[in-house]
Amino acid sequence: MMVFTNVLTIKSKNPAVKMMDITKKVEREVVKSKVTDGQVLVFARHTTAAVILQENEPGIGQDLHNILCGIAPQEGDWHHDRSSDHLKDKMPNGHSHAQHVFLGSSEIIPLCQGKMLLGTYQKIFLVELDRTRMRDIVVQVTGE
Questions:
Q1: DSSP-assigned beta bridge partners for residue 110
Q2: Which among 60, 45, 43, 49 has a CA at the least distance from the CA of 96?
Q3: CA 96: distance to chain centroid?
Q4: Residue 92 has pLDDT above 90, yes or no
Q5: What is the average per-residue pLDDT within 101-111?
Q6: Is the pTM of this model over 0.70?
Q7: Which residues, including other chains, have CB under 8 Å from residue 32's CB and lie 6 or more apart?
Q8: Concatenated DSSP letters for the chain?
């Protein structure tokens, strides 16, 4: 079995909740891996950014924004916002951490004959839940 791991550094975009299609970047990593059959793990090394599979249609991004902001609005009374590091930087993000709980950090995609077995409309997205910054996305391809 082969294991290929690489970290993609991606500058996220505002406003949060922002979906960024990273499918092509992940596909390039799969080609570099030389693995043809196995699986692809895509993992965000953050608690205020998520990785999801979804259709690339602008209305879905707006719907996701509306749902997450309805569940965990930025204006909420978040205990995390009163932590010492956020009192210093004045960048409270308790809502972003709460939203992340509903999305998660990773997705695993089957790989067959060198191609990810995504559905017809499925794409891989990095979802920014906080503010613009550099994000590390681990792509790990395992298999034969």
A1: 39
A2: 49
A3: 13
A4: no
A5: 98
A6: yes
A7: 4, 6
A8: -EEEEEEEEEE--SSSSEEEE-HHHHHHHHHHHT--SEEEEEEES-SSEEEEEEE--HHHHHHHHHHHHHHS-TTS--GGGGSHHHHHH----HHHHHHHHHH-SEEEEEEETTEE---TTEEEEEEE-S-S-EEEEEEEEEE-
Determine phi and psi for 49, rounding to 5 degrees: -145, 145
Q: Say if domain 2-74+86-143 classifies as CATH 2.40.110.10.
A: no
Instruction: Give the pLDDT band of residue 87 (cuts 50, 70, 90).
Output: low
Domain layout of the chain by residue ranges: 2-74+86-143
**Mean pLDDT for the chain overall:** 94
